[in-house]
Structures are given as structure tokens and as C-alpha cells.
């Protein structure tokens, strides 16, 4: 699977990137960065660092630092730590981002691989909407979009209604939902059905001291945050999205036209609507197989 991840790294983003880098059936063609958990500049730095420590040579293109229409947000320091990687100090990668913006890179890589690119946005959808603005052929050129965000039947994680990625840029998500792309939503309905605890990160470290050990190192701060909101562990948000892109058969999805609230108390809430092309919304999963798929990639690398 030819994959591009649009990301705001981020502890669970780091898990997603690690899985993509290690899985033998994934060809990771690029990382694009966006504000969210961190600023876009921090995200670019973290993405470069993660790629270097994973030993992969992959272009990193920096994207939007502010939402499409809303005022800017501060990074989610209380969730992902001051630099986005838990307690870790700011990493110092040696490489640099490429000269193209995220939207330019997305447009080009899709054009160069028509019908082949699976795009996994695991942060706010700002860059994807920008690529749609930039390139009228972008949606035609990509194979599919499998995104982390939203919730249909579960409460939100930043408001009673909204999940963080949709909260951060509902206007961009609404552009994407009306684009006619082949879209799968991996939202809190499923990502909060697989809760990782400290013991799971210990297992990662045992399976793979270098890469799993790193994920354990960055997990402590994240797990402490989840305790403060009454959860027994952290959601498996972004890594699950990559697993869903690779193994849709492990998920049960409802096909429905989808929209997102653009203002008011429910801003960022994703909801069933009509009059649009349907998207697949994952509502159930084989928890054990999804978790085993992630662990196996660590174990075999
Ligand atoms: O709500 C969870 C999502 O928000 C994840 O993508 C996490 O990394 C943050 O971006
Ligand atoms: Ca993310």
C-alpha cells in the first residue's frame, strides 16, 4: 500500500508513523505536517526526527499552522507534552523539510501515482482541503482517504460533541467530506474501543527495544493525561487509522453521508446527513486482531 500520512505529531501520531515505517506491506511515500497537537513547525521537526530514528528516508512537507476559517489554536501541550513527544525534550533532527508546502506535495505525489495513494490524515484536515483547492485533479488522483477524526455515537474528547481533529478545523473537514473522494472515517467510536495501558507499552518495548522502547518513553505523559479525564489508558487513535487503511476487513462500517457542525455549541460534531456521497464510518472492530497487527509489526522489525 502506497501511503502518505498527514500528521500533527503527537504521541499517537508517532505510533502511527512507527507502524507505517515498520510494516512490510506499507510503502510510506511522505509525511505532511499540520498544526494540532503541536505547531506545524514542531510537527515538521518531530516528523523529521521520527523518520530519522526509524531509519527511513521519506520527504516531510510542512503544512498549515492555522485552521481554514477559525482563529488559531494553541498546541495541545497538556495532552502530548511541551514538544509533542511526551516528556522528551525538543528533538534535533539533521534533515530539513522539502521546499514544497504540504498541499503542493500532496498534489504532486498523487499526480505521480494516479489511483494508488492512500492518504491518512491523522490531524486537522486543513492540508487536505488546501490540496483540493490547489489541484482540481487531486481527488481523482488519490485512491482513498482514511482519516482519524470525528465521532458518531460516542461523546467527543474536546467538547461533549467534538473530537480534537474535527474541532481544530471543521471547515476543512467539510470540504473533504463533499469532495467525492473514497473516504473512511476512523473516529472515537472505534479508537476508544482499544485502550492501551502501561503494560501494553511495556510489551512494545519488550518486542522491539529500539522502536517500541521509544514509544514507551513517550507514553508516560500521554497516559497521565488520560488518567486526568477518567480513562484507564490512552485511545489507539492514529495507529488504528493506519491499520484500518491496510486491513479494512477488521472493521465494521456504516455507509452514510456525513457532515460536520461549523458553528455553535456543537461545532466540530460529525453527524449523519443526506444529499452527499456516502462515506464509510467505522463503528466496530476486531480489537484483538487490530492490536496484534500493530504488535506484530514491532515484533518482526
Ligand atoms: O482525538 C484524537 C486525535 O487528536 C489524534 O489524531 C491525536 O493525535 C490528536 O491529533
Ligand atoms: Ca494526530
Helix content: 40-55%
Which architecture name does CATH use? Alpha-Beta Complex
Q: CATH fold name, please?
A: Inosine-uridine Nucleoside N-ribohydrolase, Chain A
Structural class: alpha/beta
Global shape: globular
Q: How many β strands by DSSP?
A: 12
Widest beta sheet: strand line-up: 3-2-1-4-5-6-12-9
Q: Write the H/E string, N to C.
A: EHEHEHHEHHEHHEHEHHEHEEEEH
Protein topology:
Layout (H helix, E strand, L loop, with lengths): L1 E6 L3 H12 L4 E7 L6 H15 L5 E3 L14 H4 L21 H11 L4 E5 L4 H9 L3 H4 L2 E5 L15 H5 L1 H8 L5 E4 L1 H4 L3 E2 L1 H10 L3 H18 L5 E2 L1 H10 L4 E6 L1 E3 L9 E3 L6 E7 L1 H13 L2
Parallel strand pairs: 1-2, 1-4, 2-3, 4-5, 5-6, 6-12
Antiparallel strand pairs: 7-8, 9-12, 10-11
The protein binds alpha-D-ribofuranose and calcium ion.
The site of calcium ion has 10 residues, from α1.
Describe this structure in words.
- This protein is of the alpha/beta class and 301 residues long.
- It has a single domain (2-299), classed as Inosine-uridine Nucleoside N-ribohydrolase, Chain A (Alpha-Beta Complex), CATH 3.90.245.10.
- It has helices spanning 11-22, 40-54, 77-80, 102-112, 126-134, 138-141, 164-168, 170-177, 188-191, 198-207, 211-228, 237-246, 287-299; strands at 2-7, 27-33, 60-62, 117-121, 144-148, 183-186, 195-196, 234-235, 251-256, 258-260, 270-272, 279-285.
- The strands form three sheets. The protein has an eight-stranded mixed β-sheet with strand order 3-2-1-4-5-6-12-9, sandwiched between helices.
- Helix 2 links the parallel strand 2 and strand 3.
- The longest helix has 18 residues, at 211-228.
- The structure holds alpha-D-ribofuranose (RIB) and calcium ion.
- Alpha-D-ribofuranose is lined by residues 8, 10, 12-13, 36-37, 122-123, 148, 157, 163-165, 237-238.
Amino acid at each position: 500500500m502506497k501511503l502518505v500520512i498527514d500528521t500533527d505529531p503527537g504521541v499517537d501520531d508517532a505510533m502511527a508513523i512507527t507502524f507505517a515505517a515498520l510494516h512490510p506491506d506499507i510503502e510510506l511515500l511522505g509525511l505532511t505536517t499540520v498544526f494540532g497537537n503541536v505547531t506545524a513547525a514542531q510537527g515538521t521537526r518531530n516528523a523529521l526526527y521520527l523518520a530519522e530514528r526509524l531509519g527511513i528516508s521519506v520527504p516531510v512537507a510542512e503544512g498549515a499552522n492555522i485552521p481554514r476559517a477559525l482563529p488559531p489554536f494553541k498546541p495541545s501541550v497538556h495532552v502530548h507534552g511541551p514538544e509533542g513527544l511526551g516528556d522528551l525534550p525538543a528533538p534535533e533532527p539533521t534533515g530539513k523539510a522539502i521546499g514544497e508546502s504540504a498541499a503542493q506535495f500532496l498534489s504532486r505525489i498523487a499526480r505521480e501515482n494516479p489511483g494508488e495513494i492512500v492518504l491518512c490524515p491523522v490531524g486537522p484536515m486543513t492540508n487536505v482541503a488546501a490540496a483540493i483547492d490547489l489541484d482540481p485533479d487531486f481527488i481523482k488522483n488519490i485512491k482513498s482517504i482514511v482519516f482519524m477524526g470525528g465521532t458518531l455515537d460516542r461523546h467527543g474528547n474536546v467538547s461533549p460533541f467534538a473530537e480534537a481533529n474535527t474541532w481544530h478545523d471543521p471547515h476543512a473537514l467539510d470540504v473533504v467530506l463533499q469532495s467525492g473522494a473514497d473516504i473512511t472515517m476512523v473516529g472515537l467510536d472505534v479508537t476508544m474501543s482499544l485502550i492501551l495501558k502501561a503494560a501494553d507499552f511495556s510489551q512494545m518495548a519488550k518486542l522491539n527495544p529500539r522502536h517500541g522502547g521509544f514509544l514507551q518513553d513517550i507514553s508516560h505523559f500521554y497516559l497521565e493525561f488520560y488518567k486526568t479525564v477518567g480513562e484507564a489508558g490512552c485511545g489507539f487513535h492514529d495507529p488504528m487509522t493506519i491499520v484500518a487503511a491496510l486491513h479494512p476487513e477488521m472493521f465494521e462500517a456504516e455507509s452514510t453521508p456525513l457532515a460536520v457542525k461549523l458553528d455553535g455549541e456543537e461545532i466540530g460534531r460529525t453527524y449523519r446527513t443526506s444529499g452527499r456521497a456516502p462515506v464509510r464510518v467505522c463503528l466496530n472492530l476486531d480489537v484483538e486482531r487490530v492490536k496484534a497487527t500493530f504488535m506484530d509489526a514491532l515484533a518482526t522489525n
